[in-house]
Automatic annotation (TrEMBL):
Keywords: Amino-acid biosynthesis, Histidine biosynthesis, Hydrolase, Methionine biosynthesis, Multifunctional enzyme, NADP, One-carbon metabolism, Oxidoreductase, Purine biosynthesis. HAMAP family: THF_DHG_CYH (MF_01576). This is Bifunctional protein FolD. GO terms for biological process: L-histidine biosynthetic process; methionine biosynthetic process; purine nucleotide biosynthetic process; tetrahydrofolate interconversion. SUPFAM superfamilies: Aminoacid dehydrogenase-like, N-terminal domain (SSF53223), NAD(P)-binding Rossmann-fold domains (SSF51735). Its EC number is 1.5.1.5, 3.5.4.9. Homodimer. It comes from Pedosphaera parvula (strain Ellin514). InterPro entries: Aminoacid_DH-like_N_sf, NAD(P)-bd_dom_sf, THF_DH/CycHdrlase, THF_DH/CycHdrlase_cat_dom, THF_DH/CycHdrlase_CS, THF_DH/CycHdrlase_NAD-bd_dom. PROSITE patterns: THF_DHG_CYH_2 (PS00767). GO terms for molecular function: methenyltetrahydrofolate cyclohydrolase activity; methylenetetrahydrofolate dehydrogenase (NADP+) activity.
Length: 296
């Protein structure tokens, strides 16, 4: 059933992918084929699904993609050698090392080994630094960049708004805060980050014009935490037991959607909200990397 205040992530992602496809066509007309390589270590079921989804979208947009798979037992040195090989390949414009990695491999070491200009995930320290400095020439992490696009393309007024982010992770929380407080017409928000040690977290949430949940706690945001008319973005992905579901479990977000939706001014569904945007921004970053690498 359609919901009047729903932010449709699938529709907005489709719009962005259409724009990206046009840029791919323009590149190919100049003899440039955007290339994206996924690196997966081990056979984590969720990673296999996520990489498969990204490969499918790459193909739809005309981006050449390939997946390199190493065994779970691969050493950090072996993974670094593969990254170095991809760094040196001019046909590869974007490199994505799929998380999670096995425990014996340090993610920070691997992310730092990817060339910043091929770091389409936005995790290299150089790109993180550029984001913090407000330098537009770096790559932003795909999920927070996708959240910004959801807000902007849904007509949400960010400038001057009180934005509260639940979660301080390096993938969403911290970069999201950096994006929203940029000196820009599409930002300029007053940002508060809440986390597990925040006192009276409900009072912070109830002050928010824009509430972004990225804590990884199922249905953490309840109706009494949301100011009427607030924009609520649910980034969380949590697996909960459900005997009625196939496999005995299902995915839910960080927001109790059924309780919060009647109160919110705008709200993202989960699934169908932020998830499609993450992939759309990855493809956009890859095409931009190809443009920058070839002077196109």
């Amino acid at each position: 059933m359609p919901v009047a205040n729903l932010i449709d992530g699938r529709a907005i992602a489709s719009q962005i992918q259409g724009e990206t496809a046009q840029r791919v066509t323009a590149l190919k007309a100049r003899g440039v084929e955007p290339g994206l390589v996924f690196v997966r270590v081990g056979e984590d079921p969720a990673s296999r699904v996520y990489v498969g989804m990204k490969e499918k979208v790459s193909s739809q947009l005309g981006i050449r993609s390939e997946t390199k798979i190493l065994p779970e037992s691969a050493t950090e040195e072996q993974l670094l050698a593969l990254v170095a090989q991809l760094n040196a390949d001019s046909r590869v414009h974007g490199i994505l090392v799929q998380a999670p990695l096995p425990r014996h491999i340090r993610e920070t070491v691997i992310y730092s080994a990817v060339l910043p200009e091929k770091d389409v995930d936005g995790f290299h320290p150089v790109n993180v630094g550029k984001l913090m400095l407000g330098d537009p020439n770096g790559f932003w992490p795909c999920t927070p960049a996708g959240v910004l696009e959801l807000l902007v393309r849904s007509g949400v007024k960010i400038e001057g708004a009180e934005a509260v982010i639940l979660g301080r992770g390096n993938i969403v929380g911290k970069p999201m805060a950096a994006i929203l407080c940029q000196k820009s017409k599409q930002a300029n928000a007053t940002v508060t980050i809440c986390h597990s040690q925040t006192r009276d977290i409900k009072s912070h949430c109830r002050r928010a014009d824009i509430l972004i949940a990225a804590m990884g706690v199922a249905k953490f945001v309840t109706a009494d935490m949301v100011k009427p008319g607030a924009v609520v973005v649910d980034v969380g992905v949590n697996r909960v037991n459900d005997p009625a579901a196939k496999g005995g479990s299902r995915l839910v977000g960080d927001v109790d959607f059924e309780a919060v939706q009647p109160i919110a001014g705008k709200i993202t569904p989960n699934p169908g909200g932020v998830g499609p945007m993450t992939i759309a921004m990855l493809m956009q970053n890859t095409v931009r990397a190809a443009e920058l690498a070839t002077g196109s």
